[in-house]
Amino acid sequence: MKLSGFKRELCGMILGLAVLAILPVFIQDTYLRHLLIMIFVYGMVAASWDLSLGYGGVFNFGHLALFGVGLYTYALLTKQLGVDPWLALAASGGAAVIAAGLMVIPILRLKGIYVVLLSFAFSQLILQVIVSQSDYTGGNQGMVMVPALKLGDHNMMRDKKLAYYYIALTLLSACLLFLRVFVRSALGKSIVALRDNEEYAVSRGVSLGRQRLLTLTGSALFTGIAGGFYGGYFRNTSTDVFGIDLTTLILSMVLLGGRATIYGPLLASLALTLLSEATADIGVWRPIIIGAVIILVLLVYPGGLAGALTAGWRRLSAMRTPRGQGAAINKVAS
Amino acid sequence: MPLLTVESASKSFGALRAVDGVSFSVEPGELFGIAGPNGSGKSTLFNLISGIPFGPDSGRILFAGEDLAGRKGHQIARLGLVRTFQRETAFDTLSVFDNALMGATYGGKGPVPEERSAEALAFVGFAPADFDRKAAELSVYDRKRLMLASALALSPRLLLLDEPASGLTKPEIEALIALIRRIAATGATILLIEHVLTVLLALSQRLMVLNEGSLLVLDRPDVVVRDPRVIRAYLGDRRHVA
């Protein structure tokens, strides 16, 4: 039986998530589970950024501000207003979508470096609002004792992070499904069309403003939810999420993973988090080594890790093709 | 009532007046040619009519009696005023089918965009086996055909073709002429810019020549090519006839 492209992808996705679902049976260590949770969170943010940057070609450098909006929405709603953590988690996605909608207005008809500058300025504006409202947000000090997520009477502090692992995995699954359905839809193709040739796409009836709005709000949804989850997981907030360090890390994941792939940034989140852990003891050499590895991978495989995997799979398929058949294929191709 | 009426359309870039008070109208079902030397304002005129990427500084453009002032490019395309571009433009990373689907989904009318895309692709000569190919893999002529298919997928009432024959070989030009004739035979109104005079003479019912942004001559093609003003615009005053 031959499956269609999307069904095959869906089967692969379910298989991958099933493997991740049984992983805690073998990984009992709390810290390793924590690392996996962070991989899922960063993977959600990076894959969502890939929607606007990779597929849409919009150089939105305010993406991490949407993560920050989700984080502070969760913290403010739960701590200052006593809202249920799960409602606050959903609201964190909604708030990020609204923030992305506001961010679109000034960058609607801009291109390239101007989008970078304005989206970065937008991110700094949100940071300044948070810092200025220190009575509620804790200013530069951030907020502590943020209410955690709750699962009935289950004690999430004493389960070696098992509950948080599954919550993060569920959110990641929903995020991946949302992004893949988005990019495979006519809407997803239209944002690629705008990236490929803006004037041509407009001449075929594609609205630049509407599609850009949907691209950025679509990329904001799970970024905000990831921010909300981050708040419930760490139980504190910090304005560091608006800083250049986290932006650089997540952007590295998008580029190393391979633009316009969705799965690539998730893969890069895994690779960079593990590499970062493996080099934790070598001090200042750590960022140098990580940077060198990223450059090396992108030099050899400009399509990133997803490109490397695709190339590997093609090579494997070619090796499995019977010799005579391969020669016949080559003859036809030539 | 004319399908398209252009009234004193003008566009300037700084001190350069690219289109200078051009007026003309196109009747439904007409194949209307536009010629002129390089820099005469032909493509700029297409930009003004289609609103992509800009409309006129002054003057009016009426499509089926409706003033296009203030309408965005994608809205004008959805009215059925559809253009192609001088270069063989395509969405390179999308498949042949998805290229056509963009027009059918966002600019076309009717319930099944996939069917209209397949029909448009078949009309210009693509076989179903080509539908999954990436547009970037296509030859220049195939990309031109694909651009036409994506325009036809919008079911256009007025088709603006900007130098469709540029960069093509002689057999390809002949095939293109036959294709444009088939499009015209469906009742479509076509506005055709072309440098290759044989294409314009073979297809146009009326021919307009622009020079330095202004309308020089508008008449039947056989009359236009003999007009001394047109010969002067193309060859200059001090031509030598052997």
UniProtKB/TrEMBL annotation, chain A:
Is NADP found in the keyword set? no
Q: How does it sit in the membrane?
A: Multi-pass membrane protein
Q: Where in the cell is it found?
A: Cell membrane
Residue ranges spanning the membrane: these are 10-27, 33-51, 58-77, 83-105, 112-131, 163-183, 213-233, 239-256, 288-313
Is this entry keyworded Cell membrane?
yes
UniProt cross-references to InterPro entries, sorted A to Z: ABC_transp_permease, LivM-like
Keywords, sorted A to Z: Cell membrane, Membrane, Transmembrane, Transmembrane helix
Name the major location.
membrane
Q: What is this protein's record name?
A: Branched-chain amino acid ABC transporter permease
Native organism is Dongia sedimenti
Give the organism's phylogenetic lineage: Bacteria, Pseudomonadati, Pseudomonadota, Alphaproteobacteria, Rhodospirillales
Automatic annotation (TrEMBL), chain B:
Query: Listed GO molecular functions?
Result: ATP binding
InterPro entries named among the record's database cross-references: AAA+_ATPase (IPR003593), ABC_AA/LPS_Transport (IPR051120), ABC_transporter-like_ATP-bd (IPR003439), BCA_ABC_TP_C (IPR032823), P-loop_NTPase (IPR027417)
The record lists the organism as Dongia sedimenti
The record's annotation in Pfam families points to: ABC_tran, BCA_ABC_TP_C
Positions of the ABC transporter domain: 4-237
Signal peptide residue numbers = none
Q: What is this protein called?
A: ATP-binding cassette domain-containing protein
Q: Which PROSITE patterns match?
A: ABC_TRANSPORTER_2
Keywords of this protein's UniProt record, alphabetized?
A: ATP-binding, Nucleotide-binding, Transport
